[in-house]
Structures are given as C-alpha cells and as structure tokens.
Specification:
alpha/beta, Rossmann fold, 13 strands, 2 domains
C-alpha cells in the first residue's frame, strides 16, 4: 500500500473549521481502503492562541490534535511570519512531506507556503484564487503569494478560477467548492441539539442582530471602528457582538462603555456561532466566512468592508457591501428590514458546491503526486 504524507498548517479559527472537514475526509478515504493511505500531520502555528479561539475548536470539531504547536502568538506581521517560517522550515526539513496543505489567507498560510516552496515541497492551497483587489489588506498579499507558489490551487468558486486565469494561472487549478459548506452541513443539526447558547443569553429567534468585527483594516483604524460602533448603537434591536481578542484589545477599557443596543460577549465556540447565525435577524460582519454562513442559513448580511472576495453573494442580493460609515450601515439594515429581513427569492443555491469539497480535495492530493514531483 502506498502512502501520501501531508503536513497541514493552520493557525486561525476559520482554518480550524476548514481543516476539520478535510481531516474527516482523509479518515473516510483511509477507511475505504483505496490502496493509498493518507497520513496527515497537523502543525498549529499558534497564531490564534486564546482558548476560545483555538483549543475549544479542536475539541468541538474533533480535529486530530496538532503534532506540533509552534506557539508563535501575536505580534507585528514581519515578526510573526518570520517566527513561523523558521520553525516550519525545521519540521519540513526533517519530515519532507509529499504535500504542504494550507488554508485561506493568514500569516500562517503565507509562512507555510514560503517555507515549503523554498524547500521544494509541493503546496496545495485551499481557497485559492480569492481576490479583493485591495493590496492594503494583509490577507490579499498573503493569498496572492500563496497562489504564486502553489502546485494545487483548490478554488471554492468559479470566480476564483476566473481570477487566476486572468493572472495567467491555469495549471493545477481545480474548482472543488467550499469546505466551509461541508462543515456547516455536517455540524448544523448537531449544533441545534448540543448548543444552549440561545437560552444562556436569553435570546429569542430573529429578535437580534449578530455582529463580528476583527479585520485589521477596521480594528486598527479608530475612525472606521468608531463608525461601526456608532451604527450598532443606533440600531433598534440588540446587537450581539462576540469580541475578537484584537477588537477587545483595541477597545481596552472602552468595552465597558459600549451602550445602547450593543451587547459585547466573549468569542463563542463554533457550534454556538452556528446557532446564533441561524437565529439572527440580520448579520453584520467583516468576516468572509460569516458572510457565507449567513447565506447558507438564509440570513441577510451587511458586510462592514469596502469590498469582498465573495462577490457572488452581493450579486445575488444576499449581501450588501457598505464600508463603515454609520449612515451606510443603517441604510443597508433598513433596506433588508423593509424586505422582511429575508433573502431574495430565487437566489442561487449552489454558489459554493454541493458539500463534498473535502472529498474532492483528498482525491486530488492522492492523485496529484505525479504532477507534484515532476
């Protein structure tokens, strides 16, 4: 029996969700006994180290425990990425895996891609081809560089495939769908049974707005963050705000000063978040993953950014891209409210695949060995 050895690099909460789906597909592949066994080693960079942002996700999603935790922690981009590079290089030199598997657009993604490329370890990038076309976003730089050095570019949408083609990248590009959809389908019913978050927070379905704010472009800009919070204060329903550690750090003592309809809480585990998303009346977010989860649960979404990688949602009328000016945010919420706070009828249902993306990824990793080592 032949063996394919994969080193998976993760470091941030959204990556844990995606990696869980692929790890589960790897286990299914091995149980099926196809003749090629896949051995996965997970390296956690420690980019997200808070227990609510890391440990609880591994436990709740039943992800195999990381073989290594680099424990890099937070810090400036250069410092953080350099620490990851140095430590990842040592492991890759020692293990020489067949694939280095990366997810998304974080500093962990960038470090993994660069470390592997320098050592001629083939890179497979899940969520390849996404573009905001805003080079001021650190995430945009990370994803562009990762795509440039990847052998397998695993795209969640047709738009992502087209983005790569415009850049002249066609070899190794595959439309696989979105592994986050796999995860939502797998966990949604379990979340409804296992989570008591609605009862704990004394919430009624569709009685509240749910908000997340974590991107550096918003948390590191005083005016942008102030505009977002001003809009939240002026909404006429409670705004539940799970506070990302970066946002809490920026606000400091001002967290206690949040008033009006804003209800700050600690970050919640994945299953709790799915229940809150499903029961929210409208979601306001700067997170890419939350934009998609809103769509899958049929909840209108207001995106607190000037652009989005998930353009399909805006085109379908499920998502309004508004920036951070209070009047723009309020206008978008009011527009959705005037339509009954429901998504438009006739919206496409298959924008992100059929829920079998992880299995396709495993098949490509197993079947792509010959191409990877040419």
């Amino acid at each position: 029996m032949s063996t394919v050895r994969i080193t998976t690099v993760v470091g941030a909460r959204p990556q844990f969700v995606k990696a869980a789906a692929v790890s589960r597909a790897i286990a299914d592949h091995n149980r099926a006994g196809s003749g090629t066994r896949v051995v996965e080693q997970i390296i956690h960079t420690g980019q997200h180290y808070d227990a609510n942002m890391s440990k609880v996700f591994f436990e709740e999603l039943e992800i195999p425990p990381p073989a290594i935790n680099l424990e890099v922690g937070s810090g400036p981009h250069g410092f953080q990425t350099a620490q990851m590079l140095e430590r990842l290089e040592k492991d890759l030199l020692a293990k020489r895996p067949d694939w280095l598997l990366i997810y998304g657009d974080t500093n962990s993604t960038l470090a993994g891609a660069l470390a592997a490329a320098k050592l001629h370890v083939p890179v497979a990038h899940v969520e390849a081809g996404l573009r905001s076309y805003n080079r001021r976003m650190p995430e945009e730089i990370n994803r562009v560089v990762a795509d440039c050095v990847s052998t397998l570019l695993l795209c969640p949408t047709r738009t992502a495939v087209e983005n790569l083609a415009r850049e002249g990248v066609v070899r190794g590009v595959h439309l696989v769908g979105d592994v986050m959809y796999d995860s939502v389908l797998f966990h949604a019913s379990r979340a409804g049974q296992a989570s008591s978050v609605m009862q704990r927070l004394h919430l009624e379905p569709k009685s509240f707005y749910l908000a997340t704010v974590h991107r550096a472009e918003n948390t590191d800009d005083v005016d942008r963050l102030a505009g977002i919070l001003e809009a939240f204060r002026r909404l006429d329903r409670p705004v539940l705000l799970p506070l990302h550690p970066r946002t809490r750090k920026t606000l400091g003592a001002r967290v206690a000063e949040l008033e009006g309809s804003v209800l700050p809480i600690d970050p919640v585990p994945y299953l709790d978040m799915l229940v809150l998303e499903r029961n929210a009346r409208i979601i306001l977010t700067d997170s890419g993953g939350v934009q998609k989860e809103a769509y899958w649960f049929g909840v209108p979404c207001v995106t607190l950014r000037d652009e989005t990688e998930w353009v399909e949602l805006a085109e379908a009328g499920c998502n309004r891209i508004v920036g951070t000016a209070p009047e723009s945010i309020l206008a978008a919420v009011n527009a959705f409210e005037s339509a009954g706070a429901v998504l438009p009828p006739g919206r496409p249902s298959d924008l992100y695949g059929d829920g079998n993306s992880a299995a396709r990824i495993v098949t490509l990793l197993v079947g792509g060995m010959e191409v990877a080592h040419r």
